[in-house]
Amino acid sequence: MHSDILDYYNNNWHKYKEEWAVCYTKQNLCFGTRTNNRLENMNKQLKSVIEKYSVFKKFIKNFFILISNHRNNIAVELAT
User: Fold this and answer.
1) In terms of CB atoms within 10 Å, which end of the chain has fewer, N or C?
2) C-alpha span between 7 and 11 (Å, rounded)
3) What is the distance between the alpha carbons of residues 37 and 69, in angstroms, rounded to a whole number?
4) What would the pLDDT profile of 39-63 be if each residue is shown by its tens digit?
């Protein structure tokens, strides 16, 4: 293995190996799914708003509308 790659791994990833175990445990508790419910929900929302193969300008517009709505929902949840 190239020493630069090994140094990068040791400096940036190895010290977080305990967190990897947490991700692995979550995977087992979620019946093998590799994402959590929040990420799956966001993906579902993206798909409902952004059309497949949409023009970039339309994609960006819809994406920012979704993000704005998402932030508003979070603010409402925090206020209650």
Assistant:
1) C
2) 6
3) 18
4) 788 788 888 888 888 888 988 898 8
